[in-house]
């Protein structure tokens, strides 16, 4: 069975208020054009409000229950991504991997609705198809080593309005918090927990603290199954789990690599 790749149920919840407002607004606008014998604005408004209430009271769909067998059957690896501030969970499949003239490998992950996240060695460098996109980010990559290689300056280009961008520059300190064992969908992974603590000190503004966290494979795992190419390219060491800042609009993303 092929896994449905889509943003889960909170996405509809996020858009719901906007749809409801549009529905009520259209009813009020249409009332001006009503002719004799047609339903009054009060009737249509009442119907629209009733529809909104029914949608709010409707039971939520059951969340997707993942199994290792389901994941092993996928032809491509997937990420599970949680937007903390909006309580959204989504699943993105690997669309492509490529190299450029900077260190590291770029991986492009996409959902069926066009939402996409782009990483360099497991570190988030861009988002697409979302409100308040992260346009680009500079990260501390070294070869194919997963996660940040060192502390130092980080630079984020963030969307500001429809046609403009603004830059956020952070000074980061990298700390190794030691070993940690992760359990991801029926499988255990020994990892090292790295924490990247970053701070901005823009003139005239209060300092902003950003904390990115990475759980990186401690040891290689022999690749197997349909996802062998992806694992082999990364020397079977991956950022198995992370919590990364995607800008003030999106907030923090909690990310798990579900590949076998």
Name its key features.
single chain; 260 residues; alpha+beta; YmcC-like fold; 2 domains; 4 helices; 12 strands; 19% helix; 40% strand; disordered N terminus
Summarize the structure.
The chain has 260 residues and is an alpha+beta fold.
Explain this structure.
With 260 residues, the chain is α+β, with helices and mostly antiparallel strands. The protein has 2 domains: 10-57; 71-257, YmcC-like fold, CATH 2.40.360.10. Helix content is 19%, strand content 40%. The protein has 4 helices and 12 strands; from the N terminus they run H-H-H-E-E-E-E-E-E-E-E-E-E-H-E-E. The chain has helices at 10-31, 41-57, 68-72, 228-233; strands at 78-83, 88-99, 105-110, 116-120, 123-128, 134-138, 152-159, 165-183, 188-200, 208-217, 239-245, 252-257. It has a 12-stranded antiparallel beta sheet with strand order 5-4-3-2-1-12-11-10-9-8-7-6, with no helix packed on it. Helix 1 (10-31) runs antiparallel to helix 2 (41-57). The radius of gyration is 22 Å and the shape is globular.
